[in-house]
Amino acid sequence: MTASLCALARPDFFHKVVLMSHPFKGSPKLPLGTGVSVSESGKHNDLAKLPEPRKHYKWYYSTAEANSDMSPAKGLREFLRGYFYLKSADWSGNNPQTLQAWTATELAKMPYYYIMPVHAGMRESIVRQLDGGEEMSCRWLSDSELEVYVQEYSRTGFQGGLNWYRVQTDPINMRDLDMFAGQKIEVPCLFISGTRDWGIYQEPGVVEKMAEVCIDFRGVKMIEGAGHWVQQEQPEAVLKEIQELI
């Protein structure tokens, strides 16, 4: 998302852009901007009314309690290992599919790390999804590499990253982007994602829309054997696509 906004705002500085896992869905449309709409608010109510009540992770990440839920040092290593594992191609439960609409029943097809149990934080959601019966081995993330994340998040917490969600879900904070209303990404743009990544299916039609909101769209490259962490899971394949663009 950051890369797409860089290319949108400063094509004079960013001459080409590669986006990964998070599609660019276009700039704001005045006068309504890109904030939380009434229909989006309704979807949250619908999620909470499902037989198994759920909630959307982006709006959970926007809450004050998200950082305090995820940050405690006790159990942080296990939480991060589970989080990285579940969103990767290593977890056999990742079988993403196109959602027919942005409705509660369709959204509920996604795993708990995206559409969470309504009364659970992210740590508990990960535990529930794993169900205690899996070995969380990641071929692409060693214990020593994981330890770097553990040490840094123990020191900083998650609030820095969570602030992105606070901005994205708040219409007032999003008003700064109104100055780019109707503008398209002008520079060559390539989108890369893993075939086992649910992220690109969160909003139906967004990936297809990139051909409309990018003037020089170079297409979608789906990398086999990768989930959400495509550049870490399959670095050589990703580098090949980047090199071909540049």
Strand content: 5-15%
Order of helices and strands: HEHEHHHHEHHHEHEHH
Q: Taking all residues together, what is the mean pLDDT?
A: 92
Structure annotation, total helices: 12
Q: Which structural class do the helices and strands define? A: mainly alpha
Q: Measure the end-to-end span.
A: 20 Å
Rg over CA atoms: 18 Å
Largest sheet: 3 strands, parallel
Shape: globular
Report strand order across the widest sheet.
1-4-5
Low-confidence stretches: 33-38
For the secondary structure, the number of strands is 5
Helix content: 40-55%
Notes on the protein architecture:
The chain is mainly alpha-helical. Helix content is 41%, strand content 9%. It contains twelve helices and five strands. Strands 1-4-5 form a three-stranded parallel beta sheet, with helices on both faces. Strands 2-3 form a two-stranded antiparallel sheet. Strand 4, helix 10 (206-213) and strand 5 form a beta-alpha-beta unit. Helix 5 packs across helix 7 and helix 5 (76-86) crosses helix 8 (143-156). The chain is globular, with a radius of gyration of 18 Å. Residues 33-38 have low confidence and may be disordered.
